[in-house]
Amino acid sequence: WQSAADYHAGRGAVMTWMTSIARYRAIDMLRRANAGIKVSAGDADAVDTQHAPGAGPVELAVQQADNTRLTACLDELDPPRRTCLVLAYCDGYTHDELSVKLGSPVGTIKSWIRRGLLALKACLGGGDD
């Protein structure tokens, strides 16, 4: 709400914009609370296999098919785009953090993420909304 002037209707719905703000604030809070805690690859794999409580066999099959499609589409991306997307959306890295971690300018990071998202949308059959 402090940067309401930054919202542009052409980039998406208000609710999407607000949800993104809330998501990143929550990630920041979790990072501060869990500073210094390391997560192993095994822990990350365990999280990926968890399902929504009460999900039936059909829902689980659909979820597995979606995960398989997403993984296949991610595998088609070039490594910098794939790395940026995974670190940003799965691990909650900011553009600045990605810039430092990957040793690339913030503008490049933003381009990799944007182009990666467009490639994923095309691969997953996303239409023009």
What is the overall pLDDT average? 75
Q: Note the beta-strand portion.
A: under 5%
What structural category do the secondary elements indicate? mainly alpha
Do you know the CATH topology of the domain at 59-123? Answer: Arc Repressor Mutant, subunit A
Using the coordinates above, name the CATH class of the domain at 59-123.
Mainly Alpha
β-strand number: 0
Key descriptive features of the protein:
mainly alpha; 129 residues; Arc Repressor Mutant, subunit A; 6 helices
Describe the fold and architecture.
It is a single chain. 66% of the residues lie in helices and 0% in strands. It has a domain at 59-123: Arc Repressor Mutant, subunit A. It has helices spanning 14-33, 41-48, 57-76, 79-89, 95-102, 106-123. The chain is built from 6 helices and no strands. It is globular and about 40 Å long. α4 crosses α6. The chain is mainly α.
Précis, in short:
The protein is 66% helix and 0% strand. With 129 residues, it is mainly alpha-helical.
